[in-house]
Amino acid sequence: MGDNQSLLDTVLQKAKALWPELLEWRRHLHENPELSFQEYKTQAWLREKLGEMGIECHPVAETGLWGILKSEDAGEEEPVFWLRADMDALPIHENEEKPCVSHNPGVMHACGHDVHSACLLGALNILKQLRLSWHGKVGFVFQPGEEVLPGGASLVVSSGLFTSFSNLGMAALHVSPELDAGYLGFAEGPFMASSDEIYLTFEGPGGHGALPHLSADTLLAAASTLVILQQVASRRAPTATPTILSFGRCTAPGAPNVIPSKVELAGTFRTLDEAWRREAHQHIRRIAEQTAAAHSVSLTCEIRQGYPVLVNDPELTHHVRAAMASLFGAEKIVELKPRMTSEDFSFYGSQMPVCLFRLGTGGPEHQYRHSVHTPRFDIHPEALFYGAAALAWAALSNLNAGRKP
To answer: Are 87 and 64 a contacting pair, CB within 8 Å?
Structure first.
């Protein structure tokens, strides 16, 4: 086994040589997106590519894949360091002015999961080529359904996959158009918010808008609840705890002179503290019930618990960040603040230490600055080289450092 610097240089060389294939892999994935838990063709294509590399894989969570890549001298009891990429696309119609666009109308890889999968495929290719230069086991998960509840990660965890192994930890990357290609962003500790869905249904007899005294005003009850619930974030939340309660949908079918018999509100609750998250759910339910009762309407309150807070393990994240600094240079590493978006990668934190970092995909051209979840999102092509090298080195640096599970 060569020294660490020699292995590092070789990883970079292999990633550069692989760049044309990375571009082609990403193009294929981008042009053939599939929605959450419908990734059957994506699964088949990834299985085919892994087979061409001589890497065995198995289905998980129905449309996902997992496998273990062993070094030439790995023993059965070797601990595993895991790499993860998500596979699903979003129900967004892509802007057709770009040279590489979705062939499935209304479906688009607008969150970069095509990039994540291509980078993991590249990392596994590099690791396979260098099997004589490292020792241990690298596990991989191509995970479905990150974009919708219950989250594909929760299904991978509940499958019992990780109970058969001694697990060192897991790393993953996520595209970031805010960072230039070549830069990586890190944050230790709580990094991404929990995400719960709130559904409130107000029901009453309804009636003619000119005769409100003969009906129960469901719309007024919903509007009052919407306003009063803001105290959950502004008055009930601990002042140092980031908290968001936003409602994005109100359904009240009827006419200008009709008080509807049913009004529905749907929103999202997010925070970076699990204890406060549980307490906030009680406040939301209580306030909604009391406000509905004050307006003499019935209420159905459903809180669908989504993804937990993503906590980047400090020790693992520090190690991966240092490894990336040695790979690309310390000037390429950016310290990030917590964000209120969410990621089902957080579920893996219940099984082992985890680290999710951001992969810069932006560039000087305006076309690479559009946000994720928009029809114009695109990446700077060089990001693929950095992503594949980063995932490969994240695994190798942890294995060769002799980290303990």
So the answer is: yes
